[in-house]
Amino acid sequence: MIILPYSEGDFDGVVALWRETGIFKPYNEPKSEIARIARNNNCLLYVGREAPGPEGRVVASVLVGHDGYRGWIYKLAVAEDQRGKGYGRKLVQFAEAWLVARGMPKVNLMVRAENPGARDFYHHLGYENAGHAVLGRWIDKGDVDLASAEIDVIVTYMEMTAPPTRPTVPLPPGKHALLRVENPTISFYRFLYNTVGEQWLWTDRRRMSDQQLLAQVDHPEVELYVLYTGGQPSGFVELDRRPSPDLNFAYFGLLSEFIGRGLGKYLLNWAVDQAWSYGPQRLTVDTCSLDHPRAMGEYQRAGFRPVKQVSKRMFDPRLEGYAPMHVIPRLPEVAAR
């Protein structure tokens, strides 16, 4: 048996395995359940295959994760015709090693009362009754107060209807290069987007699949420009000509290490000049109270003017796993001053 991370091509095999072994329950719809697992940074679903590639049948599975305090093992299953080969033990040992590598000192698991065979299996591997009652409640019935999980956001929509009259902004001293990225790879784009946007809770494109994201960034009317400083990426701007006759600044930002060096002012003003070279009717951009505190001012100095503000409440993306918990959202009243 070969243990591999779950991939989309394993879905039918995993569902068949769970049905055969009794893991599948009607109230746990597999597609949404696996999608929920995939979004979680602290757990992974693994499958055991008879051979690598699609020709290898899925004969086992295990879900391993942790809550930052201790580890958990779920979804351990071995096909009926593959039992007695040590696959279950191998999966448990694999899960334990996964947890040890992440600094977890203890692992827990739950066994249904109607499954004494599983209880005996785990006892044989050294697992003991922890003496704790397991309490549970369904929280998907619409009776959970989500107010504490929401963030207040003010979105400011801005536009520019004529090219600005100003001198060209020079590059700050240093070795810089500004290049257009032709047919950006998903991995490189995610690096830029995630690294620049993490501290400002950019999550729209984190939510996209690779296919959805590729359709956005590899479009012939979407242009991605990356500024390099000392040979490494320092910022990027994404121009979207699809809203013709308008042109939209889809994304703009610097890596945190390069903020405060004057690079943002140069890149933004260069991008404005580049955008007007296409002869649009107007340029548009939006910013929000989660962005850098100087973002709106920089856009105004570049020639944009606010045209509308909208107050929104959004579910905290940190709780969804799309942003790290150490990022502290800026308050709208601070951003609006």
Please outline the helices and strands.
Blueprint: E1 2-5, H1 11-21, H2 30-39, E2 43-49, E3 58-66, E4 71-78, H3 87-101, E5 107-109, H4 116-124, E6 150-160, E7 176-180, H5 186-197, H6 210-217, E8 222-229, E9 232-240, E10 246-254, H7 263-276, E11 282-288, H8 295-302, E12 305-315, H9 317-320, H10 332-335
Parallel strand pairs: 4-5, 10-11
Antiparallel strand pairs: 1-2, 2-3, 3-4, 6-11, 6-12, 7-8, 8-9, 9-10
Characterise this structure.
This protein has 337 residues and is α+β, with helices and mostly antiparallel strands. The chain folds into two domains: 2-124, Gcn5-related N-acetyltransferase (GNAT) (Aminopeptidase), CATH 3.40.630.30; 147-335, Gcn5-related N-acetyltransferase (GNAT) (Aminopeptidase), CATH 3.40.630.30. 28% of the residues lie in helices and 27% in strands. The chain is built from ten helices and twelve strands. The chain has helices at 11-21, 30-39, 87-101, 116-124, 186-197, 210-217, 263-276, 295-302, 317-320, 332-335; strands at residues 2-5, 43-49, 58-66, 71-78, 107-109, 150-160, 176-180, 222-229, 232-240, 246-254, 282-288, 305-315. The strands form two sheets. Strands 7-8-9-10-11-6-12 form a seven-stranded mixed beta sheet, with helices on both faces. Strand 3 and strand 4 (71-78) form a beta hairpin. The longest helix has 15 residues, at 87-101. The radius of gyration is 25 Å and the shape is elongated. It starts with a strand and ends with a helix. The mean pLDDT is 91.
